[in-house]
């Protein structure tokens, strides 16, 4: 079973996928949907989940910089409930503060054009979210045994 990393925006959903050993995350795609139409996003996500034998979803949790939960995070929590209901999978919330900025930084260092950065930023942010979770999970497993 693989994991999917998700980075939710108002009109896009960045998607990344883990390898079977839950060691490496790879940016997969960006799903585009109508403004705030999260049901549409879930419908577009279905084939990815069904085709890749997904066992867990790791959803970026956009807390405010001071750790509080703002309007964007509230929307993400509602999306989490929708995912759990639709797919009957565990959905883990992963702090995503600064992941989009980190993704932008990687792409700037790679001298990627503004147009390509815009196309890739969501899936790369999802990749950072998932890789952070995989590293944390692996470290916890080593510490516990």
> Uncertain regions: pLDDT < 50 for 5+ in a row?
none
In the CATH hierarchy, the architecture is 2-Layer Sandwich
Q: Structural class, please?
A: alpha/beta
What's the domain count? 1
Please write the string of helix (H) and strand (E) elements.
EEEHEHEHH
Number of helix segments? Answer: 4
Shape: globular
The percent range for strand residues is 15-25%
Highlighted features:
145 residues, alpha/beta, Nucleotidyltransferase, domain 5, five-stranded mixed sheet, 4 helices, 25% strand
Structure described in brief:
This protein has 145 residues and is of the alpha/beta class.
Task: Walk me through what this model shows.
With 145 residues, the chain is of the alpha/beta class. It contains 4 helices and 5 strands. The protein has helices at residues 38-51, 71-87, 99-109, 114-143, and strands at residues 2-8, 12-18, 25-32, 54-61, 90-95. Helix 3 (99-109) packs across helix 4 (114-143). The protein is globular, with a radius of gyration of 15 Å. 30% of the residues are buried. The mean pLDDT is 88.
Topology:
Layout: E1 2-8, E2 12-18, E3 25-32, H1 38-51, E4 54-61, H2 71-87, E5 90-95, H3 99-109, H4 114-143
Parallel strand pairs: 1-4, 4-5
Antiparallel strand pairs: 1-2, 2-3
Helix pairs in contact: 1-2, 3-4
């Amino acid at each position: 079973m693989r994991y999917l990393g998700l980075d939710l925006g108002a009109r896009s959903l960045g998607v990344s996928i883990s390898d079977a050993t839950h060691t490496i995350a790879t940016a997969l795609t960006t799903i585009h949907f109508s403004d705030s139409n999260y049901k549409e996003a879930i419908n577009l996500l279905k084939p990815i989940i069904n085709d890749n034998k997904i066992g867990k979803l790791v959803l970026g949790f956009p807390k405010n910089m001071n750790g509080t939960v703002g309007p964007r995070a509230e929307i993400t929590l509602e999306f989490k409930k929708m995912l759990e209901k639709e797919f009957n999978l565990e959905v883990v919330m992963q702090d995503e503060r600064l992941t989009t900025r980190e993704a932008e930084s990687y792409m700037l260092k790679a001298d990627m054009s503004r147009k390509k950065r815009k196309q890739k930023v969501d899936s790369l942010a999802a990749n950072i979210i998932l890789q952070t979770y995989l590293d944390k999970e692996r470290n916890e497993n080593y510490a516990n045994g």
